[in-house]
Description:
mainly alpha, 8 helices, about 180 residues
Amino acid sequence: xxxxxxxxxxxxxxxxxxxxxxxxxxxxxxxxxxxxxxxxxxxxxxxxxxxxxxxxxxxxxxxxxxxxxxxxxxxxxxxxxxxxxxxxxxxxxxxxxxxxxxxxxxxxxxxxxxxxxxxxxxxxxxxxxxxxxxxxxxxxxxxxxxxxxxxxxxxxxxxxxxxxxxxxxxxxxxxxxxxxxxxxx
Length: 185
């Protein structure tokens, strides 16, 4: 096995594990049986790892895996048609579209999370400390005010302005036009 194919296999394995929960839920929706969903998830894994080709972009990986899972569900149902209640193609399409929409939402939230991290990093150190103290450490405005020598009301006002600035920064980063988050109007 070449180094390139080893890297591809490692990446596929990583992506399969990353999307395990989503794939299992998808299979549970279609099969309504946890143990059968687990069994078919393992089959999906075998198919994914044995494929020579796959999506070139990792954001297409979940949909590709769901396509494999759907085909395996069809095969599974054909084999056990007398024992398993067959989900209709219409039902499978509805479930598939719901998961496709969730993929898009997940990608958008990941983009927003990254933009937020970049915007927070761009804040002056004092503002970054306030945001960290309030939203990571869970400190209240009066605790933060005591620490930095301001009233609780002044801290609440500063945090409100920082939130608005961060919101603008996120939107502008996503739109491609970046502005410093502390520039509040």
